Amino acid sequence: MMSRFQKRVGFSFTTVALLFFNAAATAAPLKLVLTGSSTMAPLVSEIAKRFEAKNPDIRVDVQSGGSSRGMSDVRSGMADIGMVSRGLKAEEGDLVPHTIAIDVVGMIIHKKNPVVALTHQQILDIFTGKITNWKAVGGEDRKITVVNKAEGRSTLEIFLSYFKLNNRDIRAQVVVGENQQGIKSVAGNLGAIGYVSLGAAEFEEKNGTAIRLLPLSSLPASAENVRSGKFPMARPLNLITKGTNSDVGRRFIQYSQSSEVRDLVQAQFLFSPQP
Amino acid sequence: MFKLSSFFRLNLDLFWGRLFGILTAVVACLVGLILFFLVRESLPVFHELSWKDVFSKSEWYPMSGHFGMAGMVFATVAVAWGALLAATPFGIGCAVFMVFLAPRSLMIAMKMILAIGAGIPSVVFGLWGLTVLVPWIAEHQPPGASLLASIFILGLMILPTVALTSYSALLSLPSSLRQASLALGIGIKGHVLSVALPAAKNGLVAGMILALARAAGETMAVLMVSGNIAAFPSSIFDPVRTLTANIALEMSYATGQHRAALFASGLLLAICVLVMVVFAHFFQRHRIHE
Amino acid sequence: MSERLFEMIIWFVAALSFVLIGTLIFDIGRLGTSGLSFDFLTQLPVNSGRAGGILPILTSTLIVLCITLTFTVPLGIACSLWLSEFVERKNAAAQLAKIGLDALAGVPSIVMGLFGHVFFSQFLGFGFSLLSGGLTLSCMALPIFIKTTVEGLTALDSDWRRQAAALGLSKTTLVWNVLLPASSPAIAAGLILALGRATAESAALIFTSGYVDRMPESVFDSGRVLSVHIYDLAMNVTGGDKAAYATALTLTALILLINVFVIWVSEKWLKGGALNL
Question: What's the ipTM?
Answer without folding.
Answer: 0.82
